[in-house]
Amino acid sequence: MPSLSELMKKWKNPVEMLRNSRSGIYVYPVVAPEFANWRDEQRAWRESAVLFDQSHHMDELIVEGPQATEFLSHHGINRFDNFGLNRAKHYVPVTPAGHVIGDHIIFREREDKYVLVGRAPTANWLMFAAAWGNWNVRLRHDPRSPSRPEGERVLRVHYRYQIQGPEAWKVIEKMNGGPIPDIPFFHVDWINVGSKRVQALRHGMSGAPGLEIWGPYEDKSYILSTILQAAEDAGVNLVRCGSRAYSTNTLESGWIPSPLPGIYTGEGMLADYRDWLGDDMYEAVGSIGGSFVSDNIEDYYMTPFDLGYGFYIGWNKDDFIGKAALQEMKDKPHRKKVTFEWNRDDVLKVIATAFEDGTPMKWIDFPQPNYASTSADMVLEGDRMVGLSMFNGYSFNERALLSLGVVDPDVEVGDVLTLKWGEPEPTMKTSTERHRQADIRVRVCPAPYARQARESYAPGSWRTKAEKAAG
Amino acid sequence: MPSLSELMKKWKNPVEMLRNSRSGIYVYPVVAPEFANWRDEQRAWRESAVLFDQSHHMDELIVEGPQATEFLSHHGINRFDNFGLNRAKHYVPVTPAGHVIGDHIIFREREDKYVLVGRAPTANWLMFAAAWGNWNVRLRHDPRSPSRPEGERVLRVHYRYQIQGPEAWKVIEKMNGGPIPDIPFFHVDWINVGSKRVQALRHGMSGAPGLEIWGPYEDKSYILSTILQAAEDAGVNLVRCGSRAYSTNTLESGWIPSPLPGIYTGEGMLADYRDWLGDDMYEAVGSIGGSFVSDNIEDYYMTPFDLGYGFYIGWNKDDFIGKAALQEMKDKPHRKKVTFEWNRDDVLKVIATAFEDGTPMKWIDFPQPNYASTSADMVLEGDRMVGLSMFNGYSFNERALLSLGVVDPDVEVGDVLTLKWGEPEPTMKTSTERHRQADIRVRVCPAPYARQARESYAPGSWRTKAEKAAG
């Protein structure tokens, strides 16, 4: 298996490599596209309750051993001194240069055992880092499910469900067979699901408490049946969410799932990492899609400050990878995370071209028009690029196309900018048809966008910045 | 398991029962939604070549035994005197009242063995009929794959692939390792696929010959790899078609997949059939969606004449189920099958409401907006209903929303009518969000719509009506 380094030699630069990836759309695999219909599935997380099946789309990495805490603390920006048992954090590793590699939700199950869940780049980085730094940790990696199993059986180590929405708690208490002790946000406790004791992370969406539960994959059917029965008994319209609606929930809650891992440049540890990565791994087969094209891959990198994670940083830790670089950046101006609300008339003009002969504008697929694992669309003020749109989708709750991204420090909420939609010239990507570019006006809005999420998502996350419980 | 008869007693009438079905969207299961993107997948069957994986969405029924021919001939309208070995037909059973039950492709494999492939209603009817009429036939039924397998393994008796498009033949000859003898349309022969001998049905689309091949399901991966390698060796851009694009191919070729089986009324054999059918079968859990609402379920029934299958009828057969009724209808005026081309501006007005507050018009999901197993939308001339739209979808090749349906005899190609889009009031169907109705102008066009398909689909099918080889 050739390495990423070897693969990169075949291309003019890594941007060209990733913009021409033929791996196809980054899908949310295995889960049915729709159980009801994607409009009502979106509506359910705002109005009643929704069941997310998160068993398949994320990597899981178990880190245990005498040095587990020290290892993870050294490779993430987060504080670990407040990381008690039975809680979770939003874990962010960066490169020595301070660029975000990815992010995982990390659960502390024992003094010396953590479970991490998220996209591949964080798992890959930690697997490499354990060997590279000669750490005394045991790792167990369960990669996400295949994108197109085509009828073959798919097994994971754990099932993972989330119940969210204003009526979620009624279902959860019915399932538990009684009231649940007050679990603080991003803390973990044990609850009953029928006859089983199950770990549950207190989460939240749309201003109401929800839970994420997980356990051995072989319990999945039992757990699912028990949840559905509990919803029926509680008289709650719990809607199972399919893969088409699933990936759009983040547009309302404001998390950007897809920053490009900042690992394509840099020497030392990073060069060794590229020699370690195989040419079939996320970093090699992932794709960049969108109107923003730069020869310099670093122009796609994000810092924790850009993404609003600056307040996670454990400055008091003796050292961690990237600390020096982040210290350097700390007091300089940073980009900020926002939601772009797409102009309705401009969107309709794009759609109209699908009914005309000739090359249409880039089709906006509903509800999820992303066509690469990393989206990068230019956001302009006049001719000047002032932002990057990074994750797109339609929200039936907001009756709008929204995208998440970053803008320069001088851009303000309320500004109307122009998003360049579509790529300047054809690439080898299989995920997009030949198309023309379009200008779509976008209004800069806060992230998270949804009024409810914005005002009452939860204490203790970057969503409110009121506390730092998730950091 | 209660029967359909018992289930029907719980409802005011069967229309109400089917319009409130909660079984969800009728999906094309197991096959990935997209391999490339649905626009390019549609384009491939017009411009290069496409690979359809038809292994999962249809029932298969094997009928063998001393009375196999007599049994099938008695339960279908088709001629059997010209049904030699190694050919196929488009088999249409009707009720004693002459209403279409469904249709299957039927292959004659031996003197006393046939394989039938299609939606459930034809398979169910034949299974019932064999016992009801005390026929000496052995039946083996392989129902279609589950709609939402959610990671569980799915097995069928046979894999089934189709290679279609203007460059399909190059792939097929490469796969065969040499030229293929001229197989007449809808005839079967054996070809090589790598090291295997495989049965192939000569089919065609977009005016070019194609093949459908099948064999034991355990050979599926080998066959797929061999086809893809052959395409590469032949230098043909063979695009795998996902489930989102798949179901739209019929809009260009003009076959209506979803007539409602005419079995909800009638006494004698039909009453016995409803006692035999279980309340979990297609006829009980299937759904009707659309603006046409009648208290009389017979208003949804089709005759072979309506669907353009009148010329299949084997009038010279001594008897077959429905013969007397069809003879009665024969010389009366019939509806005719057409394609409706939806007005672009009206479509855009519907889409625009997805960006406004309040109850939107019914969302048109791309490329496949059907939201029931049987679609029934009213087509009006002024206030007068003059047609029924029965299968909807968007064609990137035609840059248009199209639907297939039937119109009254006096409607002419070129007429502009109004399609009522959306349901008059909410139902219990999970497949549609709450919505308002919309008027969409439609232009009446021939079926098949596509110029190429219309002019050169193949000799010997209802598509050209030039010969009767498929009947």
From TrEMBL, chains A, B:
Claim: Methyltransferase is one of the keywords in the record: yes
Sequence intervals crossing the membrane: none
PANTHER family referenced in this protein's UniProt entry, alphabetically: AMINOMETHYLTRANSFERASE (PTHR43757), AMINOMETHYLTRANSFERASE, MITOCHONDRIAL (PTHR43757:SF2)
GO BP: methylation
Annotated keywords: Methyltransferase, Transferase
Name of the protein in question: Vanillate/3-O-methylgallate O-demethylase
GO MF entry, a single one: methyltransferase activity
Gene3D superfamilies associated with the record: Probable tRNA modification gtpase trme, domain 1 (3.30.1360.120)
SUPFAM superfamilies: Folate-binding domain (SSF103025)
UniProt domain GCVT N-terminal: residue ranges: 11-256
